Amino acid sequence: MIVVTMGMMNTLIDFLLQPLQYQFMQRGMIAAVLVGIVCAVVGTYVVLRGMAFFGDALAHTILPGIALGYLISGGARDVLFWWALGTAILAALGIGAISKNSQIKEDTAIGIIFAGMFALGIALISTVRSYAVDLSHFLFGDVLSVSTHSLWLILLFGGLVLLVIFAFYKEFTTISFDPVLAATLRLPVGLLNNLLLVLIAVTVAVSLQTVGVALMVAMLVTPAATASLLTHRLPRMMSLAAVFASLSGVIGLYLSYYLSIASGAAIVLTATLLFIISFVWKKLKQNR
Amino acid sequence: MYPHTHHQTNQPILDVSHLTVRYNGRDALENITFHLHEGERVAVVGPNGAGKSTLFKAVAGVLQPSSGEVKIFGSVPNKHVCIGYIPQRSQVDWSFPVTVSDVVMMGRSAKLGPFNWPHKKDWEFVNHALETVEISNLAPRQISQLSGGQQQRMFIARALAQESELMLMDEPLTGLDTPAQEGILNLLDRLKKENVTVMVATHDLDQAASHFDRIMLLNHRIVAFGEPKAVMQTNNLIKAYGGRLRSTDNGNVLTVDDCCDDGDDEHSH
Question: Residue B80: its pLDDT value, please?
Fold first, then answer.
């Protein structure tokens, strides 16, 4: 009996350790966990403020920027982060300005720009012969090709995002809950709104290699939404979301390794599954 | 610290002169002039879309006047953090993951300034405010678990934690049952002793007449402003409400047949 249990333990440990003998898996795990935490914390505000569509649009809008960087650098990956970062910040502030003074409805305006920019990105990338492979990496992520250099960038900028959120936690919470109160408290509401948009933009750039532009919104929204089902406290929602996102990253990569599924899709599917489980669990609890 | 201005105490707490606010191409408020004394309680009464919310937002410095000016203790409202604006309950996201004490603590944001987390003194302000409105026991509750009256008390507590000297309350009694309404009105009586000046938008003419020092009848412009007896004259009410006025048979009590949807007063931010 004991021998059997020991044997199973060893098999399990082997199962968990085997993928980690590869350095690209180690780097991928670290990247997925770091990105998950940053996305989850920023995503909490995205969910509370109803900005899911904005996040999705923003991620798609940066494709032409990445494409341009890709063409200019001749396919080098490490510089793409800077192109993504620059485009994301520009796009975030641009979309923010449009939603404030627009002749047409905000979501329509965002929809037009996001689809147009996305098409421009695809057009640019399609001028390269081997475009199908590279395009799919930008769209769906390629966390297993994260370099040590990229990992440091993720750590640096992800850490910066978390630091700013920590520093302006009460301001961001106040402008999200009650903008009129924030205005009567003379908080710089416009500036804080733009700062939050920039933080989402940096998060998008940081997450690019992990989940790609097409699946980005899932990392921003799904873990935070899962957490929102389970708690009514904001700090707890942020930490729970971070736990769910990290778990999704780790489990997703194991799935990707053993089932040969694309890594970004595996991570997002795991996050979705966690959401469904929480949703059903909550429904059952309410009905009891 | 976020900027705020010191008060010139020889000036009235609120001085509005020739205030006009236009939006969507029409005048929401036209040539409004009045001033309030410290500790006064004023009811602002008028039909839906009369500009009550617009007036409050202009006084709070959230909405810019098209012409004319608003002065709080002698200077423009944008520099003051002593104005508490209490929103209509229907405009609040009650599923937001915050507790009652979290919301009341938001009132301290300005005094705390950037990068600061609440100190012991701020928690004392919050606890004292919750005691004043008698919901200390609800402090750890999520806000969706409150009754209408408790929601209103929480916002009054937030305005107290903000150290508001002027409270603007947008329809605080709408949708509350009678005991809850009485509770809020009693609370307003107690605030008077703390020298808080209160402006309340309301639909209920009887309550306005019985619980407030002065009444402002508003319909884009000031129809009448003064002590209840002087204002609540049939001709004034007809001017403010037009055809929407009803008088009951027994005595001369007037009630207004009006629903609570202030559609024209909505703002987008």
Answer: 87
**Residue A165 distance to chain B (closest CA, Å):** 10
B119 to chain A: which residues are within 8 Å by CB?
A: none
B258 touches chain A (CB under 8 A): no
Picking from B199-203, B218-222, B240-244, which range would have the lowest pLDDT averaged per residue? Answer: B240-244
Q: Residue B265 pLDDT more than 60?
A: no
Cβ-defined contact of A185 to B2 (cutoff 8 Å): yes
Is B261 a residue whose pLDDT tops 70?
no
Q: Which of B80, B85, B106 shows the shortest C-beta gap to A174?
A: B106
Alpha-carbon gap, residue A17 to A265, rounded angstroms: 22
Task: Inspect the interface and report whether the beta carbons of B109 and A171 lie closer than 8 Å.
Answer: yes
Is residue B251 predicted with pLDDT exceeding 50? no
pLDDT higher than threshold 50 for residue B264: no
Which of B107, B141, B164 terminates a domain? The answer is: B164
Asked if A118 and A124 count as a contact pair (C-beta separation under 8 A), the reply is: no
State the pLDDT at residue B5.
67
Of residues B1 and A173, more confidence is placed in A173
Query: What's the N-to-C CA distance of chain B in angstroms?
Result: 24
Closest CA to B8 of B73, B69, B71: B73
**Is B265 contained in some domain?**
no
Q: How many domains does chain B have?
A: 2
Q: In chain A, which residues have their Cβ closer than 8 Å to the Cβ of B90?
A: none
- Helix, strand, or coil (residue A112): helix
Domain that holds residue B106: 94-164
**What six digits make up the tokens of A243?**
């736990």
Does the beta carbon of A101 lie under 8 angstroms from any beta carbon of chain B? Answer: no
Residue B173 lies in a domain: no
CATH of the domain at B199: 3.40.50.300
Q: Which helix (H) or strand (E) holds B192?
A: helix B178-193
Q: Residues 167..196 of A with a Cβ closer than 8 Å to B: which?
A: 167-168, 170-171, 173-174, 176-188
Measured between beta carbons, which residues in chain B are less than 8 angstroms from residue A99?
A: none
Residue A89: give the domain boundaries.
Answer: 28-214
**How far is B146 from A285, CA to CA, in rounded Å?**
21
User: Could you tell me if B76 and B195 lie in one domain?
Assistant: yes
pLDDT above 80 for B246: no
Per-residue pLDDT tens digits for B149-204: 999 999 999 999 999 999 999 999 888 888 999 999 989 888 888 889 999 998 88
Q: Which residues pair with B222 in a beta bridge?
A: B218
- Structural domain count of chain A: 1
Q: Distance between CA B143 and CA A260 in Å, rounded? A: 46
B130: CB partners within 8 A, 6+ apart: B100, B101, B104, B136, B138, B139, B157
Stronger pLDDT, A21 or B250, i.e. the higher one: A21
